[in-house]
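Board notes, transcribed. Complex of a protein with BES.
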Amino acid sequence: MEIRVITTNVTKIETGAIILNFFEGAKSLDGDEAILDKALDGAISQLISQGEIKGKLNEITIIHSLGKLPAARVVIAGLAKKQELTVDKIRGVVAEACRLLRKKGVDDVVTVAQGAGVADITMKDAAQAITEGALLGLYSFRRHITKKDEYGEIKRLSIVAKNEVDILPLEQGRDEGKVLAEATKLARDMANEPANYMTPADMARVAEKLAQDHSLKLSVFERDKMQELGMGALLGVAQGSAQLPKFIILSYKGTASDEIDLALVGKGITFDSGGISLKPGRKMEEMKSDMAGGATVMAAISAIAQLKPKINVTAIAPMVENLPGGHALKPGDIVTAMTGKTIEIISTDAEGRLILADAMGYANKIKAKRIVDVATLTGACIVALGDVCTGAFTNNQELVQKVVDAGAKASELIWQMPMYDKYKEQNKSDVADIKNVGSKNAGAITAAQFLAEFAGDTPWVHLDIAGTSMSDKEYNYLAKGATGVPVRTLVNLALAIAQQK
Ligand code: BES
Ligand code: ZN
Ligand code: ZN
């Protein structure tokens, strides 16, 4: 879809639909709304006075112009109360409107700069939200459906600038929104792909393409290199599958220094059967998305490379399939991680923390100044927080605050969880340095405490996206399936760290 900024007068635009908005409780129409209302012989104001248009959030009203305007339809999008407007409401309503219009066969859409100038929302914010809302809302994963989609596509979206001075900020917002939305869609695609189409080798191929397209440095370690580095925890998980593991490292260099300001580490289990500690069959197919963390960090660094902040970022994505083959790891086995720590395996289904132990060990080996890991780590995090927010765990309050703020900017909600030392007791093993599962309580926290052992003294934040990486329904700009959370947060974080340097 082409997204452009135009200055054409709304009464003169030839298009399938012009999207306007209405705030709950507003008394009168002004500006473009009033002009279009007049052209439509008062149809908009009549619907308002009849109570059909209330301005409730995501209320979409389509009015056919029937030749009274060059635009075929005028769409009134409800944005709720004016003083409570947020960019996320703009993203959401634009997504809902675009999805509906696509189903009506509309292929060209025009919108006013929704919400700009209201509640501190700038032109740039508005254009970014519109762009993200449209691109993410229209996302669907149909790659394996052979039947042609019943509906066409919206080919072009135009954002109207009222004044010449608004063009530049609107274009900037459009550009940034596009980078963020495309990266999010890429992460969704990877996580939605079934495990037979997204093996560790396939992920490495995606990384190759990203490196080429965005001038990132790429290394992919094979099994022998991992052996040489002593990644016994990761290799332990990998040994039950015929798919060879791949350790993907993508680097972006935005400064002259060799220091790595930020390592983004993502759990990349291309399929999690549980291994010998086999999962129940119900919903096991969802475990094709257990590489969402890896997909997220790869997509985020591709966006960072396009926005070019002055910061060095390395994305580390260990890619492994967790299957119960003849060579598989067994409960009771002991593996040795890259840091030299020995780990007693209690459950082979707690495999994410094993591969992350070595990925974080590697992030420390290359002396990353900060580590943020992203993982579909625990069902317990879903029990605690549902699909509403991502759980954050840290050894550094300053860094976690930056991550939470970056999330708020993206409207990807993050909630910090406690990390009291007492939770560590559950991970004590009688036969090794640590064990990979605690008791059944506080599972998201004990998993984080396990990871903390491998973060060492490096400022570190762990994001458990088990609940937020997938959506079971189409809602606003989320599609059913992978959400691409928290790609936009990670990009915002890199931009924020660069700005504060
Ligand atoms: N990949 C799962 C966690 C998960 C569950 C993600 C549901 C998304 C949806 C992880 O590897 C796992 O199996 N964790 C176990 C840990 C347990 C064995 C301590 C869990 O949460 O049950
Ligand atoms: Zn598991
Ligand atoms: Zn898993």
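The chain has 14 helices and 20 strands. Residues 269, 272, 290, 351-352 surround zinc ion (ligand 3) (CB under 6 Å).
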